[in-house]
Amino acid sequence: MLLQAIQHNNSTRSALNLVGSNSFLNWIGGASTKNGTPVNTNSAKTLSAFYNGITILCNDYAKLPKSVIIKEGNTRTKDTSHPVNRLLNKRPNQYMSAFNYDSIMMQCAILKGNAYSEIIRNAVTGKVESRQFIDERLTPVTVKKFNGKLFYHFDGKVVEGKNIEHVIGFSENGITGIGVVAYAAKSLGVALSSQEFAEEYYASKGIGMGVMTSATKMDPDAKTRYAQAIENRLNSSSNYKVSVIDEASSFQHISLTPQESMFLETNKHAIGEVARWLNIPTHKLKDTENSNYSNMESLNIDYISNSVLPWSIKFKQEQVEKLFVESEKQRGYAVHHNSNSLLEADKKTQAAFLSTMIYAGVYTRNEVRSLLDLNEIDGLSEPLTAVNMQTLEQVDANLKKLQNE
Questions:
Q1: Which of 47, 55, 113, 285 is buried deepest, with most CB atoms within 10 A?
Q2: What is the value of pTM for the model shown?
Q3: Using CA atoms, how far apart are residues 16 and 227, in angstroms rounded to an integer?
Q4: Which of 53, 39, 51, 48 is nearest to 193 (CA)?
């Protein structure tokens, strides 16, 4: 079947090829700045808001604690000895740390629409030994369908879908994704044009551009000498710059027009545009104009629920499907991402919450110590239950225990 798949031509093109082609850019209505600079993933990252937004999302996903668990009914048990646990938390391959691997995979999924990684399995057991990131800049990937299966063509070889970890961004076919820059090109192009305009303005005009007028007629040489004299004086390194203009001449400084000022302010509005395209709140892009400390926690909860969690689910579902053999999946093996780690409140709120959980019997005191990265203490592993919340069976058991002492 693999040989037949290699020869099969009914392919589904990857989003990278679509985004990189001129025809696709023309289809979305043009993607270049006023100076003709193409709007792509590289130029988009020169926008501070866009770069910061990508970095925030990638880092927040990468720092999520990930663990291998076994689900048995309503019970979940961590299996830290499973080989996949090390691939998730330590070294997915010989080249990358787990943090860097998760970060680059997330970046590719957002910017290119597709994040690919080849799963290397043990030839005998079929269990995963490493996860090799596929850099599409060096080895473009083509996805092909054949006999109800997906095959990935890259680096001169064909790999079956079960051995490729593939996370997609926005997709129109559910198989390959399309990078955010493809759709945001026009919007980002305006912000890049504004950035170029600001650079050109300060380089060519700056704050010292002006016009000198004279009541008397001047020959061209005199005009040149006057202009050079004023320019040399204003460009001097002395603390005090005083120029004397004779013959009833005057100097008029040329300032920004209202239209130019508004265009330079476009960079500020670009923060909101970038935030919408990346689906993150503006305060994550260091814009706190409409936020304050009273609602910051609510904004962070909204960010985790609507920005980080959807990506986490995409990655987790792919990991569960591809990183375990079928017998392990039937036994309840899965991957857990702990998004609660991103919800650290201030110390007072955190203390109140943990106290409530302890006295409600939800957490034991040692479990709370573990959350705070502290070692366990003997005798603190039993759950506490307030007397007025105990069941009759618990009350009877406690009374009998006291009587026997």
A1: 113
A2: 0.74
A3: 53
A4: 39
Give the C-alpha separation, 365 to 379, whole Å: 9
Both tokens of residue 239? 């603390």
pLDDT digits 0-9 by tens, 99-127: 999 999 999 999 999 999 999 999 998 89
Contacts of 17 (CB under 8 A, 6+ apart): 140, 142
Backbone angles phi and psi of 12, in degrees to 5: -110, 115
- Token pair in block for residue 352: 């109140």
Q: Are 198 and 130 in contact, with CB atoms under 8 Å apart?
A: no
Contact predicate 117/128, CB 8 Å? no
- Per DSSP, 22 falls in state H
Rounded Cα gap, residues 198 and 263, in angstroms: 9
Please say whether the beta carbons of 164 and 117 come within 8 A.
yes
Rounded CA gap, 365 and 382, in Å?
8
Query: What does the alpha-carbon distance between residue 197 and residue 49 come to, in Å, rounded to a whole number?
Result: 17
- Is residue 272 very low, low, confident or very high in pLDDT (cuts 50, 70, 90)? confident
**Nearest residue to 28 (alpha-carbon basis) of 193, 192, 183:** 183
Question: Tokens at residue 242, please?
Answer: 């005083």
- Residues 382/383/387/390 CA torsion (nearest 10 deg): -110
DSSP-derived secondary structure for 258-317: HHHHHHHTHHHHHHHHHHHHHT--GGGGT--TT--HHHHHHHHHHHIIIIIHHHHHHHHH
Query: What is d(CA 32, CA 259) in angstroms, rounded to the nearest whole number?
Result: 22
Amino acid at 81: S
Residue 66's nearest CA partner among 332, 341, 350 is 341
- The pLDDT of 287-298, averaged and rounded, is 70
- What span, in angstroms and rounded, lies between the C-alpha atoms of 75 and 63? 25
CA distances to 104, 258, 326 from 155, in Å: 19, 54, 28
Residue with tokens 């290699």: 6
3 state SS of 130: strand
Q: How far, CA to CA in Å, does 240 sit from each of 226, 230, 247, 254, 259?
A: 20, 14, 23, 21, 32
